[in-house]
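I'm curious: can you give me some protein's one-letter sequence along with its backbone structure tokens because I've never seen that pairing?
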Amino acid sequence: HAFFSLSVGVGSIMIYGAYMPKSSSISGTVVGVALLDTFVSLVAGLALFPIVFAAGLNPSEGPGLMFVSLPFAFGNVAFGQLMGVVFFVLVAVAAWSSAISLLEPMVAYLVERTKVSRAWVTFWLAFSCWFVGLGTVFSFNIWKEAKFFVNEGGVFHLYQWGATGGLDFFGVIDFFTSRLMLPLGGLCFVVFAGWIMGREAVRDELSIRNPALFGLSLFLMRYVAPIGILV
């Protein structure tokens, strides 16, 4: 949840930091964002899950909750249609804002390296992401029988149509991003900042002048964060 909601390990925070004024306090900003994200998550849970439980639905996670349980729940409560419209409009806004932050690291890198216009790079990257995203949509309808990494009776199949086990296209994308790429990216960040960057460089970037507070931050970065990510 932390990797997705805070965009940790995908380069978004690095890009935001590059655009921040030098006088800004990274540590203060990080604490503020983390607290606000936790507050919003708690409020959303307290607001949405009572609706799901009141309708007698299974509080599943992911697409099952958002696109199956919640629409049904909104349809069975007072002012549910209005609440449903407002909810999915906010979901769309959140999706667009997240897409912009996720796309910006690739756009900034390619514009700097290739000298191609920003508009052209943005268009083709957005189109590529949209095209790949179609596979996740089709995983719930016309491609739902397409399974990858199937193990049947000890026989492994990279791809098999109509198999009972394995992962669909959405499952493959979810596995590689949430189980491998995001944790690995986050681990590389904390190892680089904690062990490779110099102490003074880290102190200067974090804008922490208190020696005890900086020592605690460095300890968490070097030992606690890597163990937490691996576990």
In short: Residues 169-231 form one domain. The longest helix spans residues 80-114. The chain has nine helices and two strands. The CA atoms of residues 60 and 68 lie 9 Å apart.
